[in-house]
Specification:
Elements lengths: L8 E5 L2 E5 L27 H17 L9 E5 L6 H9 L6 E7 L2 H13 L22 E3 L2 E5 L2 H7 L2 E6 L6 H10 E11 L2 H4 L4 H8 L9 H19 L2 E11 L2 E10 L1 H5 L5 E5 L5 E3 L6 E6 L6 H5 L3 H8 L12 H14 L3 H8 L4 E4 H7 L8 H10 L4 E3 L6 E4 L3 H10 L2
Parallel strand pairs: 3-4, 3-7, 4-6, 7-8
Antiparallel strand pairs: 1-2, 5-6, 8-10, 9-10, 11-12, 11-13, 14-16, 15-16
Helix pairs in contact: 1-2, 1-11, 1-12, 4-5, 5-8, 11-12, 15-16
Length: about 425
Amino acid sequence: MEPEGWPGHIWLEGRTSVHLRNHQPKPSHMPRGPAAKTGEGFLNPAMAPARTRSVMLLADAIEHGWLVPEGKTIRALDALCATGVRPRRWRKEIPSQELLRITANDLDSDALAWARQSHKFNPVGDNLEWVPEPSRFAREQEGVVEDGIHWIEGDANKLMIQAPFQWIDLDPFGSPVGFLDAAIQAISRVGVLEVTATDTAALCGSAKTSAVRRYGAVGITDSYMHDDATRILLGTIARIAAMHDKSIHPILSLFDGHHVRVSVLLKRSKEEASDWRESIGYRIRSNPYHFSKQAEGEFSGPMWTGPIFDANIAGRMTAEKAISLCSGKDEDLPEDWDDIDIEHSKREIERTVRHISESAELLSQDHLLIAVDELGIAAGIGQIPSMKKIKSGLEDAGFKMARCHMPEAMFATNADWQTILEVARSAK
């Protein structure tokens, strides 16, 4: 039975067609912030880059075999799937589908009906079917498998407690803290947890009481608040993971537009989990900032102070790879799309991974994050130095530098502060 209002109108995200209700306006390409929510089953177009990166990471895990032994399947869950666009993109855009067992869950029956009908109306066409494994309690799982996706209508926390997964995506409206404990328990001995947080006022320091309640941390609203937000969320995940004898290894962690998005590898290890505090500390506002185990002066935290990228995995997230996996082919394009739509869609996908591969090595090790707008003042030159000249100067001095995927103009480097200042002065 078709849901009320079907078929609505069609939007293409990546290579996947999505049917939207008529009351939701046609999304814009490359949106920079959240769209106005128009009701249940709402598609937030500003989250398209996060979904593209999720496709790329899951595809990379299969291609390079870093998550499960060769030939084993990956059980992947979108715990709060809404319109179902993310699991449908996993299904449509990731090669080697025979190694994926995708589950899509939502509590909203109407949204789930639209998701299932979109999937039925736009089949992948490879006739993949599979039988879900029994739950941890040896019970058959609810829901139905249709064209390779196991659709479930239910409470996400309840589902995650019942069944183990190697890949879980959490993308709620607002804070994810109410789902983290169940998700971490649901991850198998080794697995990936992807978490989105849109309560950026708390994470970035402008809603301090909310930050303390939800994350046990405080932030400062300044040039480094978006990196703070990312690290505070990572620190929260690390703390909860340790409670369940699990450690975290960040794969990709960034702030994008209006949300924080982190992807971490979870591993069951009492020994490694016992050392979680080694990567927890505070960012002390000094010139330059530094991390400390103790809160002193003007500070933000506690937060994750270790690496926030995996050099190898993030290093493979290139524009070329994004286009090859996720850019719409001729057969995917809606009838009403013109050349401008196609070009903008391609640009959006390329922007999704902007600066990620080139900064992967630096963000996987100790580094300094530098706000370019503040560097001129710190160097005493009163003007913003050229990023290109800074990069050339630092590399001539034997250091590395890379632009970062941040709302502000920022770069990461392994150079010391004095060298950075000297290079900035010569780059004016």
